[in-house]
Amino acid sequence: MSAGKLYLFPSFLAPVNPDEVFPAANIALLSKVKYFVVEELRTARRFLKACDRSIDIDSLHFEVLNEHTDPGTVPAMLEPALAGHDIGLISEAGCPAVADPGSDLVAAAARKGIEIVPLVGPSSILLSLMASGFNGQSFAFLGYLPFDGAKRAAAFKDMERAIRRGQTQIFIETPYRNRKLIDELAAAFPPATLLCVACDLTGPTQSVRTMPLSQWRKDNTDYAKRPAIFLLYHS
Question: pTM value?
Answer without folding.
Answer: 0.88
